[in-house]
Design goal:
heterodimer; A: 288 residues; alpha/beta; globular; B: 336 residues; mainly alpha; 2 domains; 14 helices; 76% helix
């Protein structure tokens, strides 16, 4: 079985609409899977469900999340939390809000190693210094003592990447890790994540709305619409010939860097109507 | 050094504030009807007696001249002589100050502990009946003023189940070995736990009456602030690291959530000190507030002035401490 295997996961807003509709996807050890879709398609929800950080208002209504052969949803809460903390990590979307403003950087990297994994403090600090150097931060010792407000957004994202890799997790969820960054920084951070992933052999679930990023970083991808997986394919096959009409339209809508003057192609309304009909048919069926 | 700059800036503004307070208190109490000399003399005193006494206390001079005399004395540390007791005001006031300080600080500690625990517990159980019960208790605590809480406590723990003393600061028959007036503090230092227990037993109810409304304010505001902080990205990130709810609240959320609460607690603490005036009267507690009421009744002008100035010093001191704490807790301010 894959390292991460999400089976038929369904979730809804408590007393409200469905957010995820029997989502299944696999991430093999060391594999990078892209998770693409429009805003509200549920791609971030999947990442949050895997990491056990769904908002209180969201309720899982069915399915399984297998992490390293154990169904997380079947575990007691405390055990699930520790297992996720020991095996998985998050690279968050907005580096400006993801670091605690009143704690020094060093403690925010070493805390998991010391508290959850039981490392000695000195060893955890040595590890943090090593990783900060690995994400190309100059003068790591000074940065360890700094507070977040003393550092730039790009630096903070590098720190969050270092922190995510610190415990050598088997799986990292990257939730639109470049969206909040300056365009010039985006490319460097993307390259950094890809490089770190390759070096550490970590499985990566890469949530993004940018198919260009997927083509550069991922091996497989899942296309989501309305909380349903409409296509699951190898990246090479997908870009050669997407199978689902919605995926094809999404691909056609991606701006081309080679021809920036070409007008943008929206997803045709007929395609939207067809995929919405699929979602409606699902809700009308036995799974409602 | 941010802290030093904050300190110097505040000391400068404090001087201006105190000068303003001195002017206001001096002139306002002379506008209020009532004559201190009339209060001192027995019925049937002659006009000559009145004139003589008025001249003795300098009350025959024009008000602006009285003010200059008083202010130049104050600047040299001489706050004048109490008209009723004929003792130096400074000595009287400083003698009572420790009693009021101990009472206020005890009340503050109680309020922070009660309000803090309510906020933490309510945050941990947010969205459940526990939070609902805490909100109701907070609302009740806030809607009743401190002196009514004092009466309720006297009924409960002084009359129905008499476990605490309801009057005074210490049992009068006890032999007190103290050299300062900080009884509570000194009894601990001297390891006289018998005396300490007696003092706490006297102080418990007035302190609790003062603490209840402040505890409710702290509980409400801190809980609100904690709940908002719990949604922030760095708290979510800490959860993915494997930390449980209690740890996340205490280490990630609390310090950032305390900041907005701290400012308000500073302001509310000055109200609490103001509340000691009535509470001390209610419990016959020998502090500044009780002395202030006696001074007003007797139209003891120098004593009133001295007490008001001292209260003003305490208030500005509290605000200064709050500003320093705020700077110390908030790294963004410290390096600014």
């Amino acid at each position: 079985m894959s390292f991460l295997s999400v089976r038929n996961l369904s979730a809804r807003v408590k007393g409200g609409p469905a957010l995820l509709r029997r989502v299944s996807l696999d991430v093999a050890a060391g594999e990078v899977r892209g998770l693409v879709g429009e805003s509200g398609a549920g791609k971030s929800m999947i990442g949050k469900a895997v990491l056990g950080i769904l908002p209180n208002a969201v309720q899982v209504t069915g399915g399984e999340i297998w992490l390293d052969g154990v169904d997380l949803l079947a575990l007691p809460v405390a055990e699930r939390r520790r297992r996720i903390g020991a095996m998985a990590a998050l690279i968050p979307q907005d580096p400006l809000t993801a670091l605690n403003p009143s704690r020094r950087i060093g403690g925010q990297i070493t805390d998991r190693l010391v508290d959850i994994l039981g490392w000695a403090r000195a060893r955890a600090e040595a590890r943090a210094l090593e990783l900060l150097a690995e994400v190309q931060i100059a003068d790591p010792a000074r940065v360890m003592r700094a507070y977040p407000h003393e550092l730039s957004g790009g630096m903070r994202q590098r720190i969050l990447i270092a922190s995510a890799f610190a415990a050598e997790p088997k799986l990292i969820v990257a939730d639109e890790p470049t969206t909040a960054l300056d365009v010039t920084v985006q490319k460097q951070i993307l390259k950094l994540i890809a490089g770190m992933q390759a070096k550490h052999g970590t499985a990566l679930l890469f949530v993004t709305h940018d198919l260009g990023v997927v083509s550069k970083v991922c091996q497989r991808l899942s296309v989501l619409y309305g909380g349903m997986v409409v296509e699951d394919a190898a990246v090479r096959d997908f870009f050669a010939a997407p199978r689902h009409a919605y995926s094809a339209a999404l691909l056609a809508a991606t701006p081309k860097y080679t021809d920036p003057m070409a007008s943008l192609t929206p997803v045709p309304e007929a395609v939207i109507a067809a995929v919405q009909a699929e979602v409606a048919a699902y809700d009308g069926g036995a799974h409602g | 050094m941010g802290l030093l700059r904050v300190l110097l800036l505040r000391l400068a503004t404090t001087a201006v504030t105190l000068a303003g307070v001195a002017v206001i208190v001096f002139f306002v109490i002379r506008v209020v009807p009532g004559n201190p000399i009339a209060m001192m003399l027995p019925p049937g005193a002659t006009d000559a007696d009145i004139a003589q006494l008025t001249a003795l206390y300098g009350l025959d001079k024009p008000i602006w001249q009285q003010f200059v005399i008083w202010l130049s004395g104050v600047l040299q540390g001489d706050f004048g002589t109490s008209i009723t007791t004929r003792q130096p005001v400074l000595g009287l006031v400083l003698g009572r100050l420790p009693a009021t300080l101990e009472l206020s600080i005890m009340a503050l500690v109680m309020a922070v502990v009660m309000g803090g625990l309510a906020a933490l517990w309510g945050t941990k159980r947010r969205g459940t009946r526990v939070e609902g019960a805490i909100d109701v208790a907070n609302g009740m605590a806030l809607s009743v003023p401190d002196f009514l809480w004092g009466l309720v406590l006297i009924l409960l723990f002084g009359v129905l189940v008499p476990v605490f003393h309801i009057s005074g600061r210490v049992t009068p028959s006890l032999d007190l070995p103290f050299t300062t007036n900080f009884y509570l503090f000194e009894s601990l230092l001297r390891l006289r736990f018998d005396l300490w227990a007696d003092i706490v037993s006297h102080m418990f109810m007035p302190a609790l009456a003062l603490a209840i409304p402040l505890a409710a304010i702290i509980g409400q505001l801190l809980k609100q602030s904690l709940k908002e902080t719990m949604h922030l990205d760095y708290v979510t990130l800490a959860r993915t690291k494997g930390y449980g709810e209690t740890h996340v609240i205490l280490r990630e959320a609390l310090r950032n959530a305390v900041l907005p609460t701290l400012t308000l607690v500073g302001v509310q603490f000055t109200f609490l000190i103001g509340g000691t005036v009535i509470i001390e009267r209610l419990f016959s507690y020998e502090g500044l507030g009780n002395m202030a009421i006696d001074a007003v009744i007797n139209r003891d002008l120098p004593l009133i002035q001295g007490i008001v100035i001292l209260f003003a010093v305490i208030f500005t001191g509290v605000n200064l401490v709050v500003d320093l704490l705020y700077a110390a807790l908030n790294p963004r301010l410290r390096h600014a």
